[in-house]
Design brief:
Blueprint (H helix, E strand, L loop, with lengths): L4 E5 L2 H16 L4 E5 L10 H7 L6 E2 L7 H19 L3 E5 L3 H12 L4 E6 L9 H12 L2 E4 L2 H9 L7 E3 L3 H9 L5 H7 L6 E5 L3 H4 L2 H14 L4 E5 L2 H9 L8 E4 L4 H10 L2 E4 L2 H10 L3 E3 L8 H4 L3 E3 L5 H9 L17 H16 L1
Parallel strand pairs: 1-2, 1-4, 2-3, 4-5, 5-6, 6-7, 8-9, 8-11, 9-10, 11-12, 12-13
Helix pairs in contact: 1-7, 1-16, 3-4, 4-5, 8-12, 10-11
Length: 362
């Protein structure tokens, strides 16, 4: 074993979380390898994020691509086993709750390699969500658990995780947001996508909203009605575009369907929005810091701090239009104080823990 740290990323949110950690470990002189699984493989969903976030080119791109949960995870397990065996890192760092994260943690554990989980301890308590299954399993395998908010510490304690393995460090996704804040230009984004001065942003991709045809119809109906109140910019992943388009959203008055956007382009839209409608965990966090009202089309959230300390509110399809009307009337103000440690220093805190751990274990 050498003193190398190996990062595994596979999707857009992983890239945003990894960027400040990679940068902080680089500044500390750490030997690093970046492995991209290719779970998100479209240029607009992958390559542009590396360029905009200042991430180095991946040392390896496994090119796994999409598929069913079982098929994709099986492909990831096989590809990652070969990669980790060849690289023999001292520590494998995984991010978030996607299939790439679960596969990397499982392979590393089977090979006897310690795992660090960035964004540990989040719980929605909804076991119908693949992400909830992934994050629970990864936390049981991890040697180091980096936590973004205080309630996650409690979740891990109740699950019997050794408190000595848990580190409350803040949110590296917010590090990235604050680093690039000066590049977010709402006026340029409005002009680029022919939007009026007042508009909302929609991003939906969860299976509960787009995979089930009846749920997709309910979401499309709610968004079509919401677009009568305010124009909606709707960048969609390919799967979500097909599902919501078939459900009737494409072509609805006031709905602007967009291709997937780069990080800067998307965050520019969000920063200038009157409201954001989403089912994304990361967007709940980003809107909390930007002070943009967020309506989350879910019954649960693994990020309750965005409700208690942010601008987020959980709504069902039938509640969406009344909730949006309230936002447009100015009835959802931002709190005075945001979540603790969401200050742009999470990457540095993670790097400090990792370098201390390497000093004692390599």
């Amino acid at each position: 074993m050498n003193g190398r740290v190996l990062h595994v990323v596979g999707t857009r949110p992983n890239f945003v979380k990894a960027a400040p950690v990679v940068a902080a470990l680089r500044a500390a002189g750490c030997d690093q390898v970046l492995v991209h699984t290719g779970q998100h493989y479209d240029e607009r969903m992958s390559d542009i994020f590396f360029r905009q976030l200042g991430l180095p080119e991946p040392d390896t791109d496994l090119g796994v691509g999409s598929g069913s949960h079982a098929g994709q995870t099986a492909d990831l397990l096989i590809a990652l086993e070969g990669e980790l065996s060849a690289r023999d890192p001292a520590l494998v760092i995984v991010y978030g709750d996607v299939n790439s994260t679960l596969a990397a943690a499982l392979v590393a554990a089977k090979l006897g390699m310690p795992v660090a989980h960035v964004e540990a301890g989040l719980r929605s308590f909804d076991m119908t969500m693949p992400e909830e299954i992934n994050r629970r399993l990864v936390d049981q395998l991890a040697e180091l658990l980096f936590v973004t908010s205080p309630e996650a510490v409690g979740h891990l304690a109740r699950e019997g995780v050794d408190p000595g393995r848990v580190h409350l460090v803040g949110n590296p996704m917010i590090d990235t947001l604050l680093t690039h804040l000066g590049h977010f230009d709402p006026a340029a984004a409005r002009a680029a996508y022919a939007l009026p001065e007042t508009y909302g942003v929609v991003t939906l991709h969860r299976p509960a909203n787009v995979d089930d045809p009846e749920a997709a119809k309910a979401a499309a109906r709610a968004l079509t009605e919401a677009a009568r109140l305010v124009d909606l910019a709707v960048p969609l992943h390919p799967r979500g575009r097909a599902a919501l388009g078939a459900a009737g959203l494409d072509g609805a008055p006031g709905v602007h369907i967009l291709e997937p956007l780069g990080y800067v382009e998307f965050m520019s839209l969000v920063r200038g929005a009157t409201a954001v409608i989403t089912d994304s965990g990361g967007v709940q966090e980003e809107t909390t810091v930007l002070g943009v009202p967020c309506l989350t089309l879910r019954t649960t959230t693994e990020r309750p701090v965005t409700v208690t300390h942010g601008t987020n509110r959980l709504v069902g399809h039938r509640e969406l239009v009344p909730a949006l009307r309230k936002v447009l009337d100015g009835g959802q103000p931002a709190p005075e104080e945001g979540p603790p440690l969401w200050d742009g220093r999470a990457g540095a805190r993670i790097a400090a823990v990792v370098t201390r751990w390497l000093d004692h274990h390599v």
